[in-house]
Specification:
The chain is 45% helix and 20% strand. With 327 residues, it is an alpha/beta fold. α9 links the parallel β9 (269-273) and β10. α2 (43-65) runs parallel beside α3, α5 (166-176) crosses α6 and α8 runs parallel beside α9 (280-293). It is globular, with a radius of gyration of 20 Å. The model has no long low-confidence stretch (mean pLDDT 95).
């Protein structure tokens, strides 16, 4: 089976070709450069970018895979969540291809795609069915969620953010300190320049007292950073200190919640996807936690951490095959 994936949930326009779980091509065109001066994604700009670039992105994905539209057996497209205008463009485009090529179109939950991204580029995709049930986590710019993944078509949410997502907090803290957008890479770079021996700032770590609560909250730490920064001298050393301290608090909070979710569910397989997984400190924290709990950990390759269409195609293929078996 050859599956075309389409992803336009936010500011990345993406297309990918997947054959039986193997990624043949994955093309992503980002409009982040158009949003940087605003400090965040502007929905209208993102939508116009998708309209302009979705056809060339598809052409490049087909070229890289050595395929044509006539070779496609299935189309998988992001259906939710996302910016309404951006999602609509991808869906209409995908449905048009499906109609013209006379192939089925599968609508995909973007967050569940991030969980499946953990298995792309690995032999694990071929044994995915044997890994259920497992714990799935998405830590991104718009979402921080924990799932009990019972089957490919059964993802139950057991924890989510009550306000800001982790990646959103990174962006807002970077904006507070005039570090540009996107904030995650900028904060990580500054944090690596800081010597923690010179003293950390104790920023709040919300919702950790109740060990049964698997939800997240990052609005408090963002506000704490804002007041701290306003009351401090905005030197480069202080920017490094705040970056390190903020990152440390967020990573520790998220890792602790995931550990508690693993203990609560009893699952011994963990998959953590999303843009924030690009952060090397976060990856090392997850790896250390997984070793300590004897968990089988799956993290996405860095090419698949951010929004991409390969994860849409891979999940769509699995869901389509599952529905055929059940039918």
């Amino acid at each position: 089976m050859i599956t075309l994936g389409i992803e336009t949930s936010c500011d990345e326009t993406a297309a990918a070709i997947v054959e039986n779980g193997i990624v043949l091509s994955s093309e992503v065109s980002s409009s982040v450069h158009l949003h940087s001066k605003y400090g965040g994604v502007v929905p209208e700009i993102a939508s116009r970018f998708h309209v302009e670039y979705i056809s060339p992105v598809l052409d490049k994905a087909l070229l890289d895979a050595g395929c044509s539209i006539s070779d496609i057996d299935l189309v998988a497209v992001t259906d939710r969540p996302g910016l309404p205008g951006s999602v609509l463009i991808g869906k209409v485009f995908a449905e048009s291809i499906g109609f013209a090529a006379e192939v089925p179109v599968v609508k995909i939950n973007h967050l569940q795609g991030h969980v499946i991204s953990c298995f792309l580029g690995k032999s694990a995709m071929s044994k995915l069915d044997t890994l259920f049930p497992f714990l799935g986590v998405v830590v991104s710019g718009g979402h921080t969620s924990i799932y009990a993944c019972n089957a490919i078509n059964d993802f139950s949410i057991i924890g989510r953010t009550r306000d800001d997502a982790a990646g959103e907090a990174f962006d807002k803290v970077a904006k507070i300190m005039d570090m540009g957008y996107p904030g995650g890479p900028a904060i990580e770079r500054k944090a690596t320049e800081f010597d923690p021996g010179s003293g950390l700032i104790k920023f709040p770590k919300a919702l950790l007292r109740d060990k049964t609560d698997l939800d997240f909250s990052f609005s408090g730490i963002k506000t704490a950073v804002m007041y701290y920064w306003k009351g401090s001298k905005p030197t480069e050393e202080e920017r490094r200190r705040v970056s390190y301290s903020f990152q440390h608090a967020v990573v520790e909070t998220v890792t602790t919640k995931i550990q508690r979710a693993a203990e609560k569910t009893g699952f011994n397989v963990l998959a953590v996807g999303g843009g924030v997984v690009n952060n090397n400190i976060f990856r090392r924290s997850l790896e250390a936690m997984a070793r300590g709990m004897s968990l089988e950990l799956y993290l996405p390759e860095k090419d698949y951490c951010s929004d991409n269409a390969a994860m849409m195609a891979a999940l769509g293929e699995c869901l389509h095959l599952c529905s055929r078996v059940e039918g």
